[in-house]
């Protein structure tokens, strides 16, 4: 029986009168009759206003590393609430959490807190400019560094029909000043040669290279170990700061993030999403000599920065990630899920591959995974887009857009896996039938 969305749709009609698109983030709008509103959650599951139950593989785009409403983290947050809300002063726990971050992330010799990944990257870029006295920067195609003007740029997907020409670079949307285009260079991901060319020619104008170790909003495509190490070497050689944006990978792919996996140490790095199991906090970490520029010419702050509740939640979350096997269980579940999906797809002769890390892997319907944004753009993702709708309809929440990885939490268990694979198998069958019918209709 098809799920009912009567209550969600009724709520949408009410919400859209006061909220653009009926939501508080463009990415939460799935259509006038498909936008979901959450009633409650627990562990790896969420329930919408109509009572429909879903196994959640979005997890707020990654923050909920331990599962929704984790009892220990929520209890810690309530303890933090006893301190108060905001004071325009600091609290004792700030240094406790900073020490944890520094212990887990080698590059974070000193730490400053922010409220979100966007704010952290914004602060990191400002710090790099202040420390170097240069305004320019490099961003890599397919990267997502948050919603602020300096990084809201992307290769023009509409004009990218082949790789023989360089695509135009356009803002994500309206309202981003065109003057910013003169400040940055846009380089293909996993292409050290192109990055070297830019740094050789323009390093005296460039403060930093921003890199996501895994493209968190582009199919989970990872930087190859060779590329990641090459970025480090090129930045050192040309006296340009390396900003490793681990907003999505930090405390998720390893205790010390992707930097630990690759043995690479950033000059400045950011963390956010998995840091407090969903409570709003982020961190900027980096070399002491660079970080000391804060307060010595470089401004950083915020009314709600390092609030008592998020700090308490972060302390508990980080201790769990540091001291237990939570991350190992997350990775193991991701591997088992991908293996199960592969068996289902192989039995039907459907080409496929996975990109990224098992804790945030991308599913790709081609024999080899993409190496960069252009690989994804020039592929056919019709099968994924169709399959995702069948999965959501039947209680498995993944991102409808193939660019977003599947996120795993420590709360996903054997029951989740069995249901997920059963729904996935049925969804594959339905997708094959639907696309076959569409093809037959087109040819007729």
Strand order of the largest sheet: 4-12-11-10-9-5-8
The value of Rg in angstroms is 22 Å
Cα shape:
globular
Q: Count the beta strands.
A: 16
N-to-C SSE string, H for helix and E for strand? HEEEHHEHEEEEHEHEHEEHHHEEHHEEH
* Largest sheet geometry: 7 strands, mixed
- Uncertain runs: none
Structural write-up:
The protein has 444 residues and is an alpha/beta fold. Helices cover 38% and strands 15% of the residues. Strands 4-12-11-10-9-5-8 form a seven-stranded mixed β-sheet, sandwiched between helices. Strands 1-2-3-15 form a four-stranded mixed β-sheet. Strands 13-14-16 form a three-stranded antiparallel β-sheet, covered by helices on one side. Helix 7 links the parallel strand 10 and strand 11 (268-271). The radius of gyration is 22 Å and the shape is globular. The two termini are 31 Å apart. The model has no long low-confidence stretch (mean pLDDT 95).
In a nutshell, what does this entry contain?
The protein is of the alpha/beta class. The chain has 13 helices and 16 strands. 38% of the residues lie in helices and 15% in strands.
Throw out a few tags for this protein.
444 residues, alpha/beta, 7-stranded mixed β-sheet, 4-stranded mixed β-sheet, 13 helices, 16 strands, 38% helix, globular
């Amino acid at each position: 029986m098809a799920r009912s969305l009567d209550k969600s749709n009724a709520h949408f009609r009410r919400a859209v009168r006061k909220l653009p698109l009926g939501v508080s983030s463009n990415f939460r709008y799935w259509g006038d009759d498909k936008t979901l509103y959450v009633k409650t959650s627990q562990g790896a599951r969420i329930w919408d206003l109509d009572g429909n139950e879903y196994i959640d593989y979005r997890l707020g785009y990654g923050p909920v590393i331990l599962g929704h409403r984790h009892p220990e983290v929520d209890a810690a947050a309530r303890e933090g609430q006893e301190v108060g809300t905001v004071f325009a002063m600091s609290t004792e726990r700030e240094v406790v959490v900073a020490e944890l971050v520094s212990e887990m992330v080698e590059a974070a010799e000193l730490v400053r807190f922010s409220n979100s990944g966007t704010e952290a990257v914004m602060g990191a870029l400002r710090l790099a400019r202040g420390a170097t006295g240069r305004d320019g920067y490099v961003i890599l195609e397919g990267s997502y560094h948050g919603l602020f003007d300096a990084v809201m740029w992307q290769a023009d997907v509409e004009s990218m029909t082949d790789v023989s020409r360089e695509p135009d670079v356009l803002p994500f949307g309206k309202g981003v000043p065109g003057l910013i285009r003169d400040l940055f260079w846009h380089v293909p991901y996993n292409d050290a040669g192109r990055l070297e060319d830019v740094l050789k020619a323009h390093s005296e104008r460039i403060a930093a290279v921003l890199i996501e170790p895994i493209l968190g909003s582009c199919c989970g495509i990872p930087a190859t170990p060779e590329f990641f190490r090459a970025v480090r070497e090129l930045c050192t050689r040309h006296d340009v700061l390396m900003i490793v944006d681990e907003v999505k990978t930090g405390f998720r792919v390893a205790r010390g993030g992707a930097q630990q996996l690759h043995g690479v140490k950033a000059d400045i790095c950011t963390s956010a999403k998995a840091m407090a199991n969903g409570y709003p906090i982020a961190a900027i970490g980096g070399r002491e000599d660079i970080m000391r520029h804060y307060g010595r010419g470089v401004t950083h702050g915020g009314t709600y920065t390092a609030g008592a509740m998020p700090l308490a939640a972060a302390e508990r979350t980080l201790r769990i990630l540091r001291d237990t096997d939570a991350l190992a269980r997350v990775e193991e579940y991701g591997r088992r899920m991908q293996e199960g999906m592969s068996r289902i797809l192989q039995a039907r002769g459907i080409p496929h591959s996975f990109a990224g890390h098992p804790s945030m892997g991308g599913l790709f319907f081609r024999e080899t995974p993409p190496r960069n944004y252009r690989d994804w753009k020039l592929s056919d993702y019709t099968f994924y887009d169709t399959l995702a709708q069948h999965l959501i309809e039947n209680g498995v929440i993944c991102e409808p857009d193939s660019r977003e990885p599947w996120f795993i939490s420590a709360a996903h268990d054997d029951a989740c896996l069995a249901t997920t694979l059963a729904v996935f198998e049925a969804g594959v069958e339905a997708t094959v039938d639907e696309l076959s019918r569409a093809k037959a209709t087109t040819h007729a």
